[in-house]
C-alpha cells in the first residue's frame, strides 16, 4: 500500500468519524439549547490543550526530520569517503589501484541494491556489505608503500576507509524507526482528546461548523501521517536516498 493511499484513507477516516459524531450528537440536543452558554472554563481548557498538543506535534515533527537529515548525511559522508579512497588510490601501481576501485565499486553496487532493500524492509545492514567493506580495508591496509609518494597517500586512505566504516555504522543505526512506542501512544491519545474536546463546544449542523470540524480532524491526521512517514528514514516515501552514491559512482550504480 502506497504512502499516498495511507494518507488519503487516514484523512478521510478522521473526517468521517468527526462529522458523523457531530451529526449524531446534534440530534440529542434539545431545540431550546443555547450553545452560547458554554462555560468559559471549557473554552479555556480546550484552547490550552490544543496549544499544548500543537507544541508536542511540532517537537515530534522536528525530531523525526532531524533523524531523517542525519540519515541522509551519513549516506553522503560514506559515499564521499569511498570516493576519496577510489580517487587517492591513483598514486598506487595499476594492479593495486584497479583492485581497490573494483572492490569499492562492488561495495557501492551492493549498498545501492541489496543492502538498501534490506534497510527498507528489515531495518538492518547485511553481512555481505560488511564483508565487501572489509575487503576494501584489506586492499588499502595490506599494501606496503614502495615510494615516498605512496607512503604519503597511505594514511589518508586508511583514514577514509575508517570514515566510510563509521558512516556505514551510523547509517545502520538510523535504519529503523526513531519514535518510541510510548511517544506514539501519547501522540494518538492526544489527537483523540484534542479532537474530542471540540464537541464540548456544541458543534451545530451548519455547513461552516461542520467544515471547520472536518478540516481540523484532517489536519491532525495529516500531521500524524507526516510523523509516521519521517519516522523510518530509509523505509518510506519521504526518506533518505542513494543519490550521493549514484552521483559519485555512476558506473557502479548504473546511473
UniProtKB/TrEMBL annotation:
Any single Pfam family the record assigns to this protein: Bestrophin-like
Membrane-spanning intervals of the chain: 6-24, 44-65, 182-203, 210-228
Keywords associated with the record: Membrane, Transmembrane, Transmembrane helix
Protein name (database record): Integral membrane protein
Species of provenance: Streptomyces pratensis (strain ATCC 33331 / IAF-45CD)
Amino acid at each position: 500500500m502506497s504512502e499516498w493511499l495511507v494518507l488519503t484513507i487516514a484523512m478521510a477516516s478522521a473526517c468521517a468519524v468527526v462529522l458523523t459524531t457531530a451529526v449524531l450528537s446534534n440530534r440529542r440536543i434539545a431545540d431550546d439549547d443555547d450553545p452560547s452558554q458554554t462555560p468559559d472554563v471549557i473554552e479555556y481548557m480546550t484552547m490550552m490543550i490544543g496549544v499544548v498538543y500543537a507544541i508536542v506535534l511540532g517537537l515530534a515533527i522536528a525530531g523525526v526530520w532531524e533523524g531523517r537529515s542525519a540519515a541522509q548525511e551519513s549516506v553522503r559522508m560514506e559515499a564521499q569517503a569511498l570516493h576519496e579512497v577510489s580517487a587517492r588510490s591513483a598514486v598506487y601501481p595499476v594492479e593495486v589501484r584497479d583492485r581497490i576501485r573494483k572492490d569499492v565499486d562492488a561495495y557501492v553496487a551492493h549498498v545501492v541494491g541489496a543492502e538498501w532493500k534490506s534497510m527498507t524492509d528489515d531495518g538492518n545492514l547485511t553481512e555481505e556489505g560488511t564483508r565487501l567493506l572489509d575487503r576494501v580495508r584489506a586492499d588499502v591496509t595490506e599494501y606496503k608503500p614502495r615510494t615516498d609518494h605512496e607512503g604519503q597517500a597511505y594514511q589518508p586512505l586508511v583514514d577514509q576507509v575508517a570514515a566510510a566504516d563509521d558512516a556505514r555504522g551510523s547509517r545502520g543505526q538510523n535504519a529503523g524507526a526513531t519514535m518510541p512506542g510510548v511517544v506514539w501512544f501519547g501522540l494518538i491519545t492526544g489527537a483523540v482528546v484534542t479532537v474530542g474536546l471540540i464537541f464540548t463546544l456544541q458543534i451545530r449542523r451548519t455547513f461552516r461548523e461542520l467544515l471547520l470540524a472536518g478540516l481540523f480532524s484532517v489536519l491532525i491526521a495529516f500531521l500524524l501521517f507526516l510523523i509516521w512517514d519521517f519516522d523510518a528514514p530509509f523505509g518510506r516515501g519521504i526518506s533518505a536516498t542513494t543519490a550521493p552514491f549514484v552521483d559519485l559512482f555512476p558506473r557502479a550504480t548504473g546511473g
